[in-house]
Design a protein that fits this description.
CATH architecture: 3-Layer(aba) Sandwich
Helix content: 40-55%
Strand content: 5-15%
CATH class: Alpha Beta
Keywords: Metal-binding, Transferase, Zinc
Largest sheet: 6 strands, mixed
Number of helices: 13
GO cellular component, one term: cytosolic tRNA wobble base thiouridylase complex
GO molecular function: metal ion binding; transferase activity; tRNA binding
Distance between the termini: 44 Å
Protein name: PP-loop domain protein
Bound molecules: iron/sulfur cluster, zinc ion
Organism: Ignisphaera aggregans (strain DSM 17230 / JCM 13409 / AQ1.S1)
């Protein structure tokens, strides 16, 4: 089959656009889709510094490549952050691939290595507490990413794709967690000194499109799964349900996300009125101490938030990998 836009062999078919596209046109299609979503949701302005969180998986590698390709025309200053969790071979491979690709793109990379910079790897931190590994991992990553972006004066870009977000929204509706629901928007505005501005440029890119993007553009990514990956529970059921719906009605996930974003303002509380400050690290907290400081106090004997902040404050903008 031929590409709908040129004479080359088609690489894939996009059902909701009814297009067969070759590798080159597919790459352009995804990049322009990201740019349109950035404009639609007002994600960035010219001159903004963007810190891209890169795990090494297909989504973050696609994001790094796309942001790097559009950074010039959009006058964005792009740099990357990788958190080395210290999870054996998985973390070793991830760091290696991220370092190699950032270098080949000419993007400054900051590596925050839990073992080196905090003293314990994620599995070692887990030994000190009863919380699940993924829940601890999420908490630590969110804290480090937010802190890095605040201290570097950057907007944080994460690689959540349309499937991830639609699943999280439905799951949170099912379990009644509206507080998490309202955070699943394409842009979370900055609250100066407390919360960094966060954007999700892949908000309208499907999971399989991110995968096809890295394959079509020959971008290496970590094809290994983290050993703690768990499939099951509500998330998996919601995923199956949404995939079935998408098969029957191509494009429904995106239209769901657009309507969600339009209507979610109704539920949004005035965040600035409710801001509390962590007595230890000074960042946002709904209690005396933020969750990161509380959990690290249990693990290390003392809260570690200030230490993470000092790491990013002391950074010269050079490659720290
Ligand atoms: Fe972290 Fe769990 Fe994801 Fe592994 S599977 S990277 S532990 S959240
Ligand atoms: Zn083509
Ligand atoms: Zn704190």
């Amino acid at each position: 089959m031929k590409c709908s836009l040129c004479d080359r062999e088609a690489f894939t078919y996009i059902p909701y656009a009814r297009l067969r596209l070759c590798r080159e046109h597919f790459g352009e299609f995804i990049r322009s889709k990201v740019v349109r979503a950035m404009d639609r949701y007002g994600m960035v302005s010219s001159g903004e510094r963007i810190l891209i969180a890169v795990s090494g998986g297909k989504d973050s590698m696609a994001l790094l490549h796309i942001m790097n390709s559009i950074s010039q025309e959009r006058s964005l200053r792009v740099l990357a952050l990788h958190i080395d969790l210290g999870i054996g071979e998985y973390s070793r491979r991830s760091r290696e691939i991220v370092s190699m690709i950032a270098k080949s793109f000419g993007i400054d990379l900051i590596v925050y290595d839990l073992k080196r910079d905090l003293g314990l790897s994620l599995p070692e931190m887990k030994k000190g507490i009863r919380r699940g590994t993924c829940s601890l991992c999420g908490l630590v990553k969110r804290y480090v990413m937010n802190t890095a972006a605040i201290e570097l004066g950057a907007t944080l870009a994460t690689a959540h794709n349309a499937d991830d977000i639609a699943i999280y929204i439905l799951k949170n509706i099912v379990i009644g967690d509206w507080n998490s629901c309202i955070k699943l928007v394409p842009v979370i505005p900055e609250v100066k000194g407390y919360v960094a501005k966060k954007i999700r440029p892949l908000y309208e890119v499907y999971e399989n499109e991110a995968m096809l993007y890295v394959v079509s553009q020959n971008i290496p990514y970590v094809d290994m799964e983290c050993p703690y990956t768990y499939r099951g529970g509500i998330e998996e059921r919601v995923r199956e349900f949404l995939n079935k719906l998408e098969e029957e009605r191509p494009g429904i996930k995106i239209s769901f996300l657009r309507k969600f974003t339009r209507n979610i303002e109704v539920l949004r509380i005035n965040r600035e009125e409710h801001i509390g400050q962590c007595t230890s690290c000074g960042l946002i907290s709904s209690r005396d101490m933020c969750s990161f400081c509380r959990i690290t106090q249990k693990i290390f004997g003392e809260p570690q938030g200030k230490r993470v902040r000092d790491f990013f404050r002391s950074l010269e903008m050079v490659d720290t990998s």
